[in-house]
Design goal:
single chain, 4 helices, alpha/beta, 95 residues, four-stranded parallel β-sheet
Length: 95
């Protein structure tokens, strides 16, 4: 079963390392805004994200770290959820 398409008004948070982001930019898979933020920045509270970005959907390469990142962001008072299955699922859901 494919994950649901991304809703309008969300911002994607790309947790992947720079090499993976450059090899396959999420901007090519969705029209939603994409921000690159590391899990370390999120864990340390240095992510710089605010409610202005709207609801956040966190995505990583395989869908494992995004759940943890979304928990930290929710603890910081943000509307955040993980995208299950990572980039392969996004490609399947948006394709």
């Amino acid at each position: 079963m494919n994950p649901p398409p991304l809703p309008d008004g969300v911002t994607l948070i790309d947790l992947r390392p720079a090499a993976l982001r450059e090899a396959e930019p999420l901007e090519g898979l969705t029209e939603r805004p994409v921000l690159a933020v590391s899990l370390d920045e999120i864990e340390a509270g240095r992510h710089g994200l605010t409610p202005v970005q709207g609801p956040l959907v966190v995505i990583c390469e395989r869908g494992v770290r995004s759940g943890l990142a979304a928990e930290y962001l929710r603890a910081d008072g943000l509307d955040a959820q993980a995208y299950p299955g990572g980039v392969p699922a996004l490609k399947a859901g948006q394709g």
